[in-house]
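Reposting from the mailing list since nobody answered there.

I have sequence plus structure tokens for a pair of proteins and want to know whether others read the tokens the same way I do. The first protein:
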Amino acid sequence: MKNSNKKRILIIGAYGCGNAGDDALLQSIVDYFHDYNLTATAGSKNNLKPWLQVKTIRCRLNEGISFPVFKSMIKDVFIILFHLIHSNAIIFGGGSLIHDLTFYNLIFIYFWHLCALIFRKRVYYLGMGVGPLNTRFGKKISKFFLSKSTYLFVRDKRGESICHSIDVNNSILSNDIAFLINKKNQCNGRTLRENNLHEKCYICITASEWFDSDNFWNKSSIDFEVQIKKFAAYLDMLFEFYNMKIVFVPTVSHDSQLAEKLSNKISFKDYIIIPNNYNSMEMAEIIENSYLLVGMRMHSIIFAARQSVPFIAIIYNQKVNELLEILDLADYSIPINDMNLIALTSAVNKIESNYGIIQKKLKEKSALLREQAIKSMDMIEKDMMT
């Protein structure tokens, strides 16, 4: 049992919602603040307790709006409020939380910030993705609350620029806090044995059926059949070039559905689909032991970068482009709308010509980004001690 005299932190984010990237952010916070009493909001798609030393309280963030979700949130609000009142500080723990693509997102985030202000709690935004903020309401309310945060660490220059554009002048440029974790094989190679995989003998694929971030909230109403056929053709080319097993890694749980569709269209049979209930440590272990990642998902690229695995990034969203700029590896990317067999072949040849150079750069950059993530958390911890 944790010491009741330790400072208490409530961590609010989209954890346990089927996104290994978001869970990796929580893992980094828990890893750093392991001596504190920690409580985190969590959905129901991934059980965080077996592998993270953190108490969880239910919160159906990122599940959209429906009557069951609304009913659940009414009950959950009192439990979250109880933990907020009994905490010393609130951390909004990374990811793309500050946006107005849905009408309810900012209301949810800033409601808890308002409660924290009422009860005189310190509020930290850590590794935060800011934007897009397209509405007047989104800009106004974000200016008010973000300016009142104790610390506002944004993960990239785009977020910093958006903060400045709405007159939020207390932002501190940091990075994605998932870089804090630098241990390889956190599951001691178990995931490789379970899937009969061997280090550097397979290629990982992470793919999202959005195909374009403008479709993020309209995905269910769009027919992506043409894009799926094209992507399958790209996979055929990769397999023919490398003659290595293709491993689909659904770092977001519903991406496994796309993997199934792709597997029905590719011409080769030497592939597997990783179970979509793997946690972020398990997903990372699969990716970090691969020879190459072809990745759309941002945190899959981070999992690769942390252990110097070269990648070809398929850019569907500005946040991925921002990450590549930070890593100084934008040359090894393909915008989703420009992706074709010629572009992919060119990227593969470039990777092969510079494989060792890329590994060295990733090792150096990841070490710097880890130090930066630690510095952000050091500042929070020092502030909490005052």
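The second protein, same order (residues first, tokens after):
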Amino acid sequence: MKVSIIVGGRFHAFELARELHRAGVLHRLITPYPKFKTRQWDLPDDRVVSLPLSLLLQKAADRLGGDALTMRGQALFNRLFGQQAAHYLEGSTVIHGWSGVSLPALHWAKPRQIPVVLERSSSHMRVQCQLLEQEYASLDLTWQPATPTAVVNQELQEYDLASRIAVPSLFVKRSFLGQGLLEDRLIHNCLGANLNSFYPGKKQDHVFRVIYTGHLSVRKGIHHLLRGFQSANLANAELLLVGGATKDTPRLLASAGAGVRAIGHVPQHSLVNYYQNSSVFVMASIEDGFGLVLTQALACGLPIVCTTNTGGEDLLRMAGANPIQRGGGIEEYPAGFLVPARDSGAIATCLRWLAENPELLQSKRDAALTIAQQELSWRHYGDRARASYQALVA
């Protein structure tokens, strides 16, 4: 088996490539990133094809016209990279391509009867657009930049042509089933975490610290998280927001008080320190195919509170126990809670339960570590991916 990966960014493709290389089945990783970057994942240069032109054009568009110009050119950038990538597929027996850049590869593979697994890390494109447009409208904001029609149409064509579509979570899987795709066309493979970089440590104070890491954006539901924290009205508590701001962040955090700290972007290697000194991780996303930060938090022993639209349900189910229905759409699992999207009241309820019950908090910390040790390595993810390729080829 010789697997070629096509990815227009980084995402979790480099981790997948590393695991496939370890197993001796990686044919090529085709990426816009330079080889000095891919070496950080122990990928040898002779297994990497670097095609930087599309990435350079995106950066130029961003400098000249910002997000709006970049999004207007996205279909062109994707098509350019995809067409270049298709020239390097000879010798592949399986192709794993990321959505948005894989249409030329799909056209190349079809007459050669080579199976293509299409990676869609977010919900079905139509569902994603609908969820975000609704949320922006509820805030009286314009969804800008909107996903161009050409990008949407390109992805929909990819869905039709792919042999299988790889999805990282139950949330994404349900979004495809809801759009009429048959379940046997989907490969459901939960993502992993770097357990060498994220691990438990001793908390340094007695503050009940709620942490979120990621972009401070509408999509990530930061406004719902803030309202939930404020409604919980906890004593000796803090909400720590770690991540880059967007143009909407000032409005989303306009009501933040003294108990809220937004500290901006933190390098990956430093994130573990913030996780270790926190009590619970909360992700209130409106649309998020799989929040990798959830796996990082669990690996550090943090219980998670997350919406149904994050991929967190997959992680919480790994402990094996059936959820307890707590009312109001809240589901309790050994390692945390699942709450409805857009429900700050449910977030507040879960935070109060954890803050006011140290034994409950500790039991969920223990369950989080159990999940991390059993299921969350990238090695497990790579093994499951290889098994899906073998079944497809067979």
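Reply #1 (J.P.):
I read it the same way you do. The radius of gyration is 21 Å.
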